Amino acid sequence: MPGGMQEIKRRIKSVESTKKITKAMELVATSKLRKTRNQLEQSKPYYTNVAQMVAEILANCKGNNDSVYLVENKEIEKEVFIVIASSLGLCGGYNANIFKEIKGVIKPGDYVYSIGSKATSYLLKNHQGVTDHKFDDLNTTFDFKDVTKLVVELTNMYRQKEISKIKIVYTEFVNNLTFRPRIVTLLPVDPSDFDHIEISKKSTLFEPSPEEVLDSLIPMYLQAVIYGYIIESATSENAARRTSMENANDNADELTEQLLLKYNQARQTAITNEISEIVAGANAQ
Questions:
Q1: Domain match, 196 and 261 both
Q2: Domain that holds residue 186
């Protein structure tokens, strides 16, 4: 029995050590969550203003805009996907939900950009087409210059009619407990996506022309959207990791209670046996 009690004590000590790690990780994830949520809020004004301007141009053109970014390259089958996952583990089903979402959607001939080392590992193993991972660390650096480079590559491929569509796979942040994967089409731009934006009643004159202004504005719009989706995915990742670590702490507390109960039962049994032996020895005399 003493040997069993020592084993239980070792298990309790091991669980408590693990809890210290998960508690620290929960605190780190909470801090990062607060930081990325602030970044998300700070990026909204720029995105809102660019989207407002795009909506103004589309409303003024009234469907007569011949911008290349509004027309789908229907004769081309190849599509581009930007897949955003995490670079670290211990974030629950965050990555698994992303991979489940893209399964069967990405075709072998599609060109895929991976953001996050988990996305890179999964796509290199499962995607038969090209997986471009030079922007692999964008989900940790949040470097807007890299986002600009990515948009330049995307728009060049689209203008040269090498691809039919550009889509992004990210995790939408609803609240600290709810986040869901989504696939959004970036190009061609759908004018109906801007119907909810309230535009001014003023007549706006665009120089040299609405089409040329829109052709310059769409890449800026894409930069804002992609950057926002990267930050939103990072926010969802940190929320998922915080929830996972919180659950791990709760499980550690529950396991510790169970082990303490077993330890006390074993200790009580040992004491009872010792008393029985003493009484038996006394009676034998």
A1: no
A2: 29-243
- pLDDT per residue over 82-138, tens digit each? 999 999 988 989 999 999 999 989 999 999 999 999 999 999 999 999 999 999 999
Taken in order 206, 210, 215, 218, the sign of the CA dihedral is: positive
CATH of the domain at 132: 3.40.1380.10
2 band by pLDDT with thresholds 50, 70 and 90: low
Residue 28 neighbours by CB under 8 Å, 6+ apart? none
Q: Report residue 13 as tokens.
A: 């000590």
Q: Which two structure tokens, joined as six digits, stand for 181? A: 């994967």
